[in-house]
Specification:
Elements: E1 8-14, H1 20-30, H2 36-48, H3 64-69, E2 76-81, E3 86-91, H4 99-106, E4 111-117, H5 124-135, E5 140-146, H6 155-169, E6 176-181, H7 205-211, E7 224-226, E8 229-231, E9 243-247, E10 252-254, E11 258-262, E12 267-275, E13 278-280, E14 282-284, E15 288-293, E16 304-307, E17 313-324, E18 335-340, E19 343-357, E20 362-364, E21 375-388, E22 399-403, E23 410-416
Parallel strand pairs: 1-3, 1-4, 4-5, 5-6
Antiparallel strand pairs: 2-3, 7-16, 8-9, 9-15, 10-14, 11-12, 11-16, 12-13, 12-15, 17-21, 17-23, 18-19, 18-22, 19-20, 19-21, 22-23
Helix pairs in contact: 4-5
Length: about 425
């Protein structure tokens, strides 16, 4: 039922100029995932800019000004497929002022690739990105030690970076960290195994991604179904149909299961689980379905259907880790729109408990102003209860975003503790 060959979402991060876009370009190029017209356009642009051969970074650097500056500003998404798996890549920025984009790119990732320059080793941005990956509960981290060609492919340089990374990563809550020595520019250990590093006995990057087991990362225990809309077709055939449509956030639902609608507290049993392909006996995360019930109870957008014996917490008072994403600092006791699954209402930042220094892993309880890229622990209060789990237990029902009610811009991402 849970196919290990399912879609894998991964993000790339690291310090600026560590070669993230070049690495993705190499993955696409060597796995034959580039369309002919794309290849011709990149070859033409590479020649115009004076490059010898193909500038691989151009396959992902999609914004005009980022191409001119040679850095990635926004999150660039790319899709590719191999015979073994489908992939979605988020190429996130390396500059410190663009750390907010990494939160965006990494929020739905199954894995994170963190690039480290073999010459520079672990630096501030490496630690920041590794911490964010840990904060966002990304289950798998692959540390690609890049530019091995510039250190003559020596194992000593590789081992030194591993030592530096493990020194601080022992404080992070990531259960699966792997290290791969690569040269994105020359292609060593990206798609094809390197003959210049025969001392490395592990798999190349693409093989690691293709065989990564992610089915066990999905929460199959806690049944959570946020309702996005109520379906009431007006056709003669479906005149009496009343379905609750949405995407299953976690767990498994089966026809006949007793369910509880929150926050109303009404109970019923599942009558059918319908998809565009037809009806199912059971459905599971992250499937999009329409659920019908045996009883006509009051359920609407923003409500959550759960199992009667396994409920999330209903609370107006939320404590969470938060990353501030906006140029403007947070308003003291400011009110914002809060979006949680399919529910949206108003929330107030009641208290900044502390700000977290990711370089020293120390907590600052004195500085209460939230500025762009700050990571902090806060208390919020909402106008009505939200149905929540901790982010550690459930990424879908444990996450929120804050939206400025005046500009409609997303200002923060929060992970409920």
């Amino acid at each position: 039922m849970f196919d290990n060959n399912q879609l894998l979402r991964f993000t790339t991060a690291g310090s600026v100029d560590d070669g993230k876009s070049t690495l993705i370009g190499r993955l696409l190029y060597d796995s034959k995932s580039i369309f002919e017209d794309q290849l011709q356009a990149v070859e033409s642009t590479s020649k115009r800019k004076g490059h010898n051969g193909v500038d691989l970074a151009l396959f992902t650097d999609g914004l005009r000004d980022e191409r001119e500056q040679g850095i990635t500003i926004d999150v660039a998404y790319r899709y590719f497929t191999t015979p073994k798996r489908k992939f979605i890549i988020a190429d996130t920025p390396g500059h410190i002022q663009y750390t907010r984009n990494m939160v965006t790119g990494a929020s739905t990732a199954n894995a994170a690739i963190i690039l480290v320059d073999s010459r520079a080793g672990v630096i501030e941005q490496t630690r920041r990105h590794a911490f964010i990956a840990s904060l966002l509960q990304i289950p798998h981290i692959i540390v690609c030690i890049n530019k091995m060609d510039l250190v003559e492919f020596k194992q000593e340089a590789y081992n030194k970076v591993i030592e530096q990374f493990e020194e601080f990563s022992s404080k992070l809550l990531v259960r699966d960290i792997r290290f791969i020595p690569i040269s994105a520019l020359e292609g060593d250990n990206v798609v094809n195994r390197s003959e210049k590093m025969d001392w490395y006995k592990g798999a190349p990057l693409l093989d690691t991604l293709e065989t990564m087991h992610i089915s066990s990362d999905i929460n199959k225990i806690d049944g959570r179904f946020p309702v996005q809309t109520v379906l009431r077709p007006q056709s003669e055939k479906h005149r009496d149909y009343r379905g609750y449509a949405g995407r299953i956030a976690s767990g498994i639902f089966r026809v006949g299961d007793e369910i509880l609608a929150m926050p109303s507290g009404f109970t019923s049993r599942i009558k059918s689980l319908d998809t565009i392909e037809g009806s199912l006996d059971e459905a599971y995360a992250p499937m999009s379905i329409s659920m019908t019930l045996e009883d006509d109870i009051d359920v609407g957008r923003g409500d959550m259907i759960v199992r009667s014996n396994n409920k999330p917490e209903a609370s107006q008072d939320l404590e969470m880790m938060m990353c501030w994403l906006h140029d403007n600092p947070a308003k003291p006791r400011g009110k914002y729109h809060i979006r949680h699954t399919s529910n949206e209402q108003t929330a107030m930042i009641k208290k900044v408990i502390y700000k977290f220094n990711i370089n020293t892993f120390e907590r600052d309880t004195d500085d209460k102003e939230l500025r762009m890229n700050d990571i902090c622990k806060v208390k919020l209060r909402t106008t009505k209860p939200l149905m929540i789990d901790s982010y550690r237990e459930n990424r879908a029902t444990g996450s929120v975003i804050l939206i400025d009610s005046d500009t409609n811009e997303t200002v923060a991402a929060g992970m409920i503790v």
